Amino acid sequence: MARNILILMGGGIDSTALLHYFLLRDYAVRGLHYDYGQPTAAAEQRAVKAVAAYYGIEVGLQNLPVPVRRVEYEFACRNALLVLAAAAAHGHQYTSIGLGIHTGTPYFDCSRVFIQHLQSLLDGYFQGVLQLQAPFVDLTKTEILSFCHAEKIPLEMTFSCEIGPKHPCGVCPSCKDRLANGLNH
Fold this sequence. Notes:
This protein is an alpha/beta fold and 185 residues long. It is built from 6 helices and 7 strands; from the N terminus they run βαβαβββαβαβαα. Helix 1 crosses helix 5.
C-alpha cells in the first residue's frame, strides 16, 4: 500500500501545518474533521473547508456521537476519542493517522506518552500497519509557527479558539498562543 494519511483537522494552525508537512513528504493526504459538540464546530468547519480547498485535498466532516465533557478549556479524552473513531471507521484504508499536537500544553493527550499508549492500541487492532503520526509532539507552538512562516502556510485561513462560536474569545489558551506569536485571527 502506498503511504497515505488521514489528518485529523480542527481548522487551526497545528493541523494545517501537519497537512502541509505530509504533502511535502509525498503522502496521499485526506482530512477529517469531527464535530464532538464543541462550541466552535461551525467556525472550525469553515476553516477546515478553506484549508482543504487551498491544498486541493478531500476532507470529511463527521459527527462524533459521544458527549465530550469540557473542564475549563480541556475536552476530556478528546484526542483519544478522535483517533480511535477515525481508526475504527477508516483505519483499514490508510497507513497513518496524523494528529497535530505539540509540547508546552498541560494536556496529557498532547504528550509523547499519550502517542505511545495510543500506538500500542492501534498496533493491537491493526497488527502494526496503522501508525499514529504526530511529528510536532516535541515542538513548541513558536517552532511550529516558524515552520509555517518558512513554508508560507496560509495561517489567515485557520481558526484557533476553544470557546467562541463565531469569533475568537481572546482568552482561551489557543487564542493566547496566537496572540503571543503575533497572530490575530
